[in-house]
Amino acid sequence: MAIDPDALASSLRRLATLGQPGSSVVEGLRHVTEACVDLFGVSGSGIMLADEQNIPRYVAASDGPGRLLEIAESETGQGPCTEAFVNNAVVASTDVTAEPRWPDLAKALRPHGVRAVLGLPVRLGAVTVGTLDVFYDRPHIWQDDECQALARYRDVIESTLSAAVAAENAGELAAQLQYALDYRVIIERGVGYLMARDGLDSMTAFNRLRRAARDTQSKIGDVAQRLVSSGRLPTEDSESRRSAE
Fold it and tell me: Fewer CB atoms inside 10 Å of the end CB: C or N, the chain?
């Protein structure tokens, strides 16, 4: 994939501001998504980061459809970006609106001009804390050179985001990311436990943890810890008590 050197230099200058005192990290990330569109010629781009429930949420996007993509993924718990977050792997879709594995997401996005989507995990250290998401407004087969070039761009985002957090320049976002760092391992263990116990895939297991946390007004890390310790979700304990009455 050929990259315009001037566009690349402009993008790197914007990334560099993320670690500077007095700069807004969220505003910087928005500029990064806009530069991604200019640099790679995609229709749109966005960044999701884990919230205090360790659920990937919209932080910045290059345009309205990019924001809608991320909001729809957070609400449905489906899609290539969510899978990239849960599985710590690059996930591609030629056309999300034609994907039988993500029916709720397909329905939500069909009117909004989001078709081919690529989700890349964003990490702090070795821990996935969010995703870089890019899309086309038409079906598109993602080529290896595209994925590799976008992965290199993602690597620079990781480095600058890490510098901003280390410099305590990320405000509330830093606390949010710290929760993701602290609880990622136990959540992965909880997901693995449900996969082994109930024969689930990773996304179904993650969303089951997520629902249990929501239904009990608990944090997903606490639910995962309880599951690993007791072998049961808190919602399963409630169901057992109702059955016994």
Answer: C
